[in-house]
Amino acid sequence: MISTENVENMKKKITRILVCILIVVCVWNVSARVFNQTGKMDSEYKENNANARAQRSDGQNVTLEDVLPETEASMQSGGSDIGLKNENIAVNSGNLSDQNEKNDEKMDADEKIETEQANQRSESTDDNDGADSLITDDKTAADENTEDPCEYETGYIFLGDSRFYLMNEECKIEDVPNFFVVSCPGMGYAWLADTAFPKVQSLQRQHTEIKNWVVICGLGVNDLTSIRSYLNKYRKWPASSKLYLLSVNPTKSGAPARCNNQRIEAFNSRLKKVKNATYIDSYRYLTRLGYGTKGDGIHYDSSTNWAVYSYVLEQLNRNTGGEPVTESDCKERAKKLEDQLSQKNY
Questions:
Q1: CA atoms within 13 A on the CB side of 204
Q2: Which of 11, 26, 94, 254 could be stapled to 89 by a disulfide with Cβ–Cβ 3.0 to 4.6 Å?
Q3: Cα 195 to chain centroid, rounded
Q4: Are residues 222 and 105 in the same domain?
Q5: CA-wise closest residue to 159 among 186, 199, 190, 194
C-alpha cells in the first residue's frame, strides 16, 4: 500500500515536470515565431491552441490561450508583440513557480506538524514506559530489601580420613542439617588436593541456604612425611571458608611404626603454626583425658570418638560466642553443642 506521504511527493514531482514542459514548449514557440514572423503566425497560433488543449487533457488549468490572446493586432505587431508575449510567459511561469513553491511550503508545513505530533506521541509513550520501569525498579528494590536471610548462619564441613569416617558412623554427624562430612579411609594429602578440596567447594556452591562456612580438617596420620605439602595447601586456603586444623591425635601400641606419637608430635608442632587457620589441640586433650582404640592402636572406640567430637564442637561454639556446656558426659555435651551450632536464622 502506497502511503499518503509518497502520494504527496509524487504529486509534487509531476507538477514540477509539467511546469518544465510548459516552459520549454512556450520558449520553443516564441523562438519559432521569431524566425517566422510573417505568414506563419496563424499556423503557430493554431499549434499553440492545440498544445494548450493537450495540456488541458493532462489536467492543467493554465492554457496557452491565456498567454497568447486571440487578437489580430497581436499577430500583426511583429517583434514588439513577441517581446510582450515573452514577458507574459515569464510572468505566467513565475506565477506557476510561486504557486508550486506555496504548495511545497504547505506540504512541508503539514509534514512538520505530523512529525512533531508523532514525536510528541513517542515522548508520551517513553514517559509512560519510564514511569512503569521506575515503578518496577522500586518494587524490585523493595522485594530485595525484604528478602529472607540465609536459613543457617554457618555450615560445618568435617574433612578427614578413616578417623573422621568412623566418628561420623558413631556420632551421626551428618544428621545435623548444617553439618557435612567429607572423609575416606586411608587417605592423605593427594586425596585432599585432588578429590576432597573440590568436593568441599561443590558443597558450598550447592547449599545456598548457608551464609558462612567452616571447614574442620583432620588429616595427616596416614602420611606424616607430607607435612610440607599440607602446609602449602592450608596456607593457600580460600577465604570463602574459615579453616580449623585438628591435630593428628595419639596412637597406641599396635599402630604402624610410621605413625608413632613422636612423629605425630613433630607433625603437630608445625601444623599449629599455620597463621590463616585455627588450631584445635585435641592431641593434648586426649592424653589428659585418656583414650581407647579398637585394638589396632590407631582407630578409636565409641567413647573416644564422642570425646573428640564434643571437644571439636566446644571449640567451634566458643569461637562463635555460644553458651558454655557443662555436661560431663561427652555424648550429652556434643548433643547440646550440636543444638547451638545448628540453630536457624528464622
A1: 20
A2: 26
A3: 33
A4: no
A5: 199
How many angstroms separate the CA atoms of 258 and 223, rounded?
A: 8
Same domain, residue pair 64 and 103: yes
| Grid-cell match 606424616, residue found | 224
φ, ψ for residue 227, nearest 5 deg:
-55, -40
Would you say 153 and 212 are in contact if contact means Cβ atoms under 8 Å apart? yes
Say if residue 35's pLDDT is above 70: no
Q: Give the residue numbers spanning the domain of 301.
A: 152-341
Q: What is the DSSP string of 214-247?
A: EEEEE--TT-GGGHHHHHHHHHT--TTSEEEEEP
Q: What tens digit of pLDDT does each residue of 179-225 get?
A: 999 999 999 999 999 999 999 999 999 999 999 999 999 999 999 99
Question: What confidence score (pLDDT) does residue 15 get?
Answer: 84
Pair 263, 198 in one domain: yes
Q: How far does CA 33 lie from the centroid of its chain?
A: 81
Is pLDDT at 72 greater than 70 in this prediction? no
Name the domain boundary from 127, 144, 166. 127
Is residue 235 assigned to a domain? yes
Instruction: Report the helix count and the strand count for the chain, using DSSP H and E.
Output: 13, 5
DSSP letters along 85-100, please? HHHHHHHHHHHHHHHH
Beta bridge partners of 215: 157, 243
CATH code of the domain in which 203 resides: 3.40.50.1110
